[in-house]
């Protein structure tokens, strides 16, 4: 677990972009959020790349090869790198696929590149297993990719507010309290393109992914849905 020093007024959280199978309007949406909230900390909850072609599941022949997928993901991430040259990223099941593939095929860690090198990310991007930060008001917040579908229990067991990604169809804030104060648990939705073949495994699920993210201002979470029009594109304004 990494613990960041300092106290943060405005934390922008983004999760599950799954490049290159991302929603087409991520950049414009995140730029609008950056301009509105002027974050002093940006956290990615993981799955910034999909790595579908690297997965252990059956591959769709109509999707990209491993090399093409990675190349396309990196090219599409470049504007995000310019928008957010500093980012703290927590490890995730899709993000770690390169390493899991290497391990399964007998490669020692020493011969593998770092995440930053694989994704050609800027020097200001830092990866953590999970992360604790302190809000300006003094409350501690725990960030992880997807440790528990029961976010309230996670928050209670770790004794602080928490934020998770991973659960694409869930976009929620739940509160709990004790004599010491008010705590909350957030699940932050995702930023994927639901129609992509990369998510065909989920087509029979009636619940659809919720496209959006969360900001935390002075220790209080605010959900920011990306409201879509009938064509599945962002309506180009925050609600
Ligand atoms: Fe994900």
Description:
The chain has 239 residues and is an alpha/beta fold. Helices cover 21% and strands 28% of the residues. The mean pLDDT is 93. Fe (ii) ion is lined by residues 16, 18, 47, 94, 166, 168, 190.
Write the layout of secondary structure elements.
Layout: E1 2-8, E2 10-14, H1 26-37, E3 41-44, H2 66-83, E4 87-90, H3 97-104, H4 115-119, E5 125-128, E6 131-135, E7 140-144, H5 151-158, E8 161-164, E9 171-178, E10 181-188, E11 212-217, E12 220-225
Parallel strand pairs: 1-6, 2-3, 3-4, 4-5, 7-8, 8-10
Antiparallel strand pairs: 2-11, 6-7, 9-10, 11-12
The structure holds fe (ii) ion (FE2).
Fe (ii) ion binds next to loops.
Mean pLDDT: 93
* Class computed from helices, strands and strand pairing: alpha/beta
Strand order of the largest sheet: 1-6-7-8-10-9
Total count of helical runs of at least 4 residues? 5
**Rg, Å, rounded:** 17 Å
Q: Overall 3D geometry?
A: globular
Q: Unreliable stretches, pLDDT < 50, 5 or more residues?
A: none
Biggest sheet features = 6 strands, mixed
